[in-house]
Amino acid sequence: MREPNRRHFLHDTAKLAAAIAALPAGYARGASPDDSTEPADSSKPSANETLRVAVIGVNGRGMDHVDGFCKLKNVTVAAICDVDPKAGARAQHTVEKLAPGSAPKYVQDLRRLLDDKSIDAVSIATPNHWHALAAIWAIQAGKDVYVEKPVSHNVSEGRRIVEAARKYDKIVQTGTQCRTQKGIQDAIAFLRSGKLGQVYMAKGLCYKPRGSIGHQADCPAPEGVDYNIWLGPAPERPFNPNRFHYNWHWNWDYGNGDLGNQGIHQMDLARWGIDKHELPKSVQSAGGRFGYKDDGETPNTLTTTFEFDDCELQFEVRGLVTNDELKVKIGDVFYGTEGILAITSYQNWQTYFPSKVKGKVNELEPGPSGGGGGDHYANFVQAVRARDRKILNADIEEGHLSSAYCHLGNIAYRLGRKLHVNPTTETFVNDSEADAYLTRPYRKPFVVPEKV
């Protein structure tokens, strides 16, 4: 297991102790919630028994989790957790409609949820700054975990989740559902077949319209919302609607811009397509928040390049009016010495090859194509029941690496220069300024441990 150099992180022993102290009552470092001297029970329901899932964060993407798990056989959404009781109530009502007779309990503080030994797995769809800590706490409480993309808010956090999953032998799935779509799996198989020749470049496209969020003044948090829990690991600051529901994506304290929002899906497929299983040797980014002035901090226009010895990965975020590329606006394009493959949606792909017609050799003609879906939640449940992480289509290690690529691109943008990476240590090369962005100062007691 790779262990980044300790001198590059900001946490000390006291902060680690604070993180342990902040765990839900009754467990620490993997102990059972009811008996800290006994290891957490790793057994899970068989295929004929009910798997009890709790969904954490239900104001947005979490409602898809609710819907997905409710539709699976012998799976019940047993609990809903959200800092906003109104969002929690809506999710409870949805569960009762989808699964008549079900009545999931509502919990506002996820630490209290993790005390519940009857919960087998948690599904996390909080804002990004909570993903890692919620996942690690859940793993240490003996739960299997489905965690949304990006799995981390910074590079170090992702590696900590991987270490926790391996240490406590838990099943941890990343919410990059494209990996379960048959069409995408077939596209990757075509890339591996060699029919495109040598793939020398992958390009991820996130051309998703993003308008101005305007300006809003600080104000009291909505009635009933536990804003302290919502802030969690992030710095203390007043409540602002433009840093709350969804618009948190465009603030560095909580989100990672569209590179780490929509873009993480396409980044994951780009890395998968060129078959890279470690960080790149360098990264550089340029862009800005163009076209309007608002409360957002992250770029709406960004070009990032990752270098390898045998190819490169380009990524573009375009949030303003733009054209498509090969009929793709949100997808990936892979360039080979013999042809091109474009992933045109979450499920579909199309190839292009140079025309064989005399006089048209510079024109492209469509080649093989395909499509087809899949169920990412079912894949997670299958792996949980089998106690086999190899069944997962998006194991946490894959989620960590793809998330880290997004973080590296944002770091290069924020520093405004090319950065050289040590893939083995997952740090930068002789660059303490850049290394400082690999983690963050944590607000006690919500501290992601430097070492699990």
General description of the model:
The structure is a single chain. By secondary structure, the protein is α/β, with parallel strands linked by helices. The protein has twelve helices and 18 strands. The protein has helices at 13-21, 62-70, 85-98, 110-114, 128-140, 155-167, 182-192, 227-231, 263-273, 376-386, 396-415, 432-435, and strands spanning 31-32, 35-39, 51-56, 75-81, 105-107, 121-124, 144-147, 172-174, 199-206, 282-288, 301-307, 312-318, 330-336, 340-343, 349-354, 364-370, 419-422, 427-428. The strands form three sheets. Strands 16-15-14-13-9-12-11-10-17-18 form a ten-stranded mixed sheet. Helix 2 (62-70) runs parallel beside helix 3 (85-98), helix 6 (155-167) packs antiparallel against helix 11 and helix 9 crosses helix 11 (396-415). Residues 1-42 have low confidence and may be disordered.
Overall morphology: globular
Radius of gyration, in Å, reads 22 Å
How many helices? The count is 12
The percentage helix is 25-40%
In terms of quaternary structure, what is this? single chain
Write out key terms for the chains shown:
single chain, about 450 residues, alpha/beta, 10-stranded mixed beta sheet, 6-stranded parallel beta sheet, 18 strands, disordered N terminus
Produce a short descriptive summary.
The protein is an alpha/beta fold. It has helices at 13-21, 62-70, 85-98, 110-114, 128-140, 155-167, 182-192, 227-231, 263-273, 376-386, 396-415, 432-435, and strands at 31-32, 35-39, 51-56, 75-81, 105-107, 121-124, 144-147, 172-174, 199-206, 282-288, 301-307, 312-318, 330-336, 340-343, 349-354, 364-370, 419-422, 427-428.
